[in-house]
Structure formats: structure tokens, C-alpha cells
């Protein structure tokens, strides 16, 4: 594995600025709560697991700014809400922030402030290390469904750039390559941020995995021609009934895969499962700026006053999914 999206340093974290890929590889230092919030909301970093890891450090950065527990008590909900509101759909973000918050309240009445800060830093490091292990385990389970000579379609980016290491959807692909399976990946470009074209193709090339970039609308034709054997995607949130929120276009792919009798796999850590919601109908779908649709870099590709709808995610129903793979194995609805 040549790619790492996040580097944990003594007093800060360093992340790849993914807005600049594939043309420029530049790292950004995140030292404060506001740095982390900016990086998440402005797509410097993205991918549900990575957002969760970064947010855990963001929580710690927010706490360490204060020198009295009473100040923290007064500001803790502001810190929590500031982080959670950066990207509302990805449940890993909420999970990580709530875990850090709960840890703070466990420590609050037991230790002095400096010890609390150190233990919160250790907790953020623990979340980072757990993410690496979880992604590797997801890869081991997913690899069982990848046959030699497979042609696999993936959507968006659910690889090393979306996690601390390995990825979710791409983890099984990397494990398959390590086991010398001959595989080829079809990479959906993934409008409008082009995470497939800019990020997935880039990291697959870095890791010497054979791949071909396609426009999103080509997937159905390739399936009908028998050129796709398997679809593997990640997830930003999974409801208790198994409905999955993932990058816009995922639902369409699941319909096409079902029509063409192609297995459709979702790979995600258990931290992505939200048992507080019964179905995908309850998942808040983030909508982003109209300029993401009508502009590419600094060039307008549509009229400036064009009306735009830009939902970032869609909901794939459980019945369209062949397997949901986590670090614990297969997930079943209401599990």
C-alpha cells in the first residue's frame, strides 16, 4: 500500500488535500478545531471513515484550547455541533464525535485537566488505529467474493483516500491483488466531484491495480455486454433495515446490477451502521452548492443562472444489495 490519507503527528494531523489530486500531491496541517471543520466541509478530506477519524482529533483540538474544565463544560456542545454540522449524512462523523464526548464525561470527574487532554488524544489515536484494522478485515472478508479474472465496477472513492488505510470498497481489491488474483477495475468517474476519475483511478494506478475509467452512464451498457462481474461500493450510512446511503448514483447502479444478475456488494465498517434509524427514509441527504454542477474548476459548463439540484447521496434499498460486508463479516438487516 503506497497511499496514506492521514498522518498523525505529535501535536497535529497532516492530511492529503484531495481537492488537488491527481495533478498535485500536497499535504495540509490541521492543528485546531476550525482547521478540521474547514477540511471536512470543503472536501479537503472526504470519505465517511476518514471524516470520523479526523473529527475525533478535531474534538481533541477543541478541548485542548481551554485551561479549565468549567470552560469546556460550557463549550462542549458547541464543539460537538460544529463538527457534526460539517457533513450531516456520514454517520461515522457523529459516531466518532459522540465517542469522544462520552469519553470526556467519563474522564471528567476522575482526572486533572492535563490528564484528560492526554487521554482524549490517546482516544483519537485509538480510533485512527482501529480504522486501519477494520478496513483490513473488511478487505479479507470481501476478497472471498472476488474471483480470479474478475472485472469489478466501483463508484466514487472508497479506498485509502477515504479511510486511514486500505479503504472499504477497495480494501478487498487490494487484498485480492496481494493474493495474486488477476483482476481489473472499472472506475466510474463519479460526477460532480469526479472522485472516481481524480482519486480512485489515481490510487489504483499508484498501487499498480489494472483499471479503466468510464463515464457513469456507461456502466449499464458494460453490464449488459457481460463485462462487469461484480459491483463493490462503500457507504456513508446504513440504516437498521440495511438501506444504504452512499454517493449519488449508487442506487442506479444497484438497479442495473439487479437487472443484469450481477452481485452488488457494500463494504463498510460497523461504525457506519446507524441503528437509531429504521430505514433509509430517515437519512438526511446533504445538498451542496449549485456551482459544483455548473462549473469544472474555474470554467462554467452551463449558464451561470441555471437552476440546479445537487444531492450528494442517494439511498439504495436493502433488497438491491447482495452482501453488506463489515469488519465482523456479513451484516444482515436488523442485525
The unreliable regions are none
- Can you tell me the overall shape? globular
CATH superfamily of the largest domain: Translation initiation factor eif-2b, domain 2
Number of domains: 2
Order of strands, main sheet, comes to 6-5-4-7-10-15-16
Binned, the helix content reads 25-40%
Global mean pLDDT? 96
Indicate the structural class.
alpha/beta
End-to-end CA span: 32 Å
Helices, by number, come to: 10
Biggest sheet descriptor: 7 strands, mixed
Q: How many strands?
A: 16
Named CATH topology of the largest domain: Rossmann fold
Helix-strand pattern, N to C?
Answer: EEEHHHHHEHEHEHEEEHEEHEEEEE
What is the C-level CATH assignment of the largest domain?
Answer: Alpha Beta
Radius of gyration: 20 Å
Estimated share of beta-strand residues = 15-25%
Write the layout of secondary structure elements.
Elements: E1 6-8, E2 13-16, E3 27-30, H1 33-41, H2 48-64, H3 69-84, H4 91-108, H5 113-143, E4 151-154, H6 171-178, E5 184-188, H7 195-206, E6 211-214, H8 219-224, E7 230-233, E8 237-239, E9 244-247, H9 250-259, E10 264-267, E11 273-274, H10 291-294, E12 295-296, E13 299-300, E14 313-316, E15 323-326, E16 329-330
Parallel strand pairs: 4-5, 4-7, 5-6, 7-10, 8-11, 10-15
Antiparallel strand pairs: 1-2, 2-3, 8-9, 9-14, 12-13, 15-16
Helix pairs in contact: 1-2, 2-3, 2-4, 2-5, 3-4, 4-5, 5-6
